[in-house]
Amino acid sequence: MTQDNASGDPAQPPRRVDRAGIVIAALLAVLAAVLVFDARGLSSTMMYGMGPEAMPVVVACGLALLAIGNFVDALRGNLPVRESADPVPVVLILIGLALLIAIIGFGGGFILATSALFVTTSAAFGRRAILVDSIIALVMSTLIYLAFDRLLTLSLPTGPLERLL
């Protein structure tokens, strides 16, 4: 029996370095660095213990671990094979995020903004029931708004629907 590659498995071709995986690892590392840099600018009113800068640093540590793991797997060629890129879902989610920002910016409130994001994200994942998704989004967003506003007493952006509640 002959060996075709270093692993000794004749059925598996040798894996190559995954360049896209390395780019993703680098982007994760950059995002982690930006979070740490930004957290350093937060002023802490705490004399001791953790202040508001602690959580961004924890998230940055998680991103750094993901970057390291992704980098190692990319070098080894162990990342899963990706399908061909379809830009439509990404564009739909970006439209949803833009709608979220625009609706809140123009005073539409949390419920409408979150509903728009929900519907566009649902469409990005292949659902075509826009009316049903809109109803589900409005009900869920209203319940989330009421939970934050009434139970947790945390303020969310208000708009015409929130003023009715």
Shape: flat
Residues in β-strands, percent: under 5%
Broad structural category: mainly alpha
Gyration radius from CA atoms, angstroms: 23 Å
Number of helices: 6
User: Secondary-structure element sequence?
Assistant: HHHHHH
Q: Specify the biggest β-sheet.
A: none
Description:
The protein has 165 residues and is mainly α. Helix content is 64%, strand content 0%. It contains 6 helices and no strands. Helix 1 (19-40) runs antiparallel to helix 2 and helix 3 runs antiparallel to helix 4 (110-124). The model has no long low-confidence stretch (mean pLDDT 85).
What does the secondary structure layout of this molecule look like, with pairings?
Blueprint: H1 19-40, H2 54-76, H3 87-105, H4 110-124, H5 130-151, H6 160-164
Summarize the structure.
The protein has about 160 residues and is an all-alpha fold. It has helices at about 20-40, 55-75, 85-105, 110-125, 130-150, 160-165.
Task: Give the key terms.
0% strand, mainly alpha, 165 residues
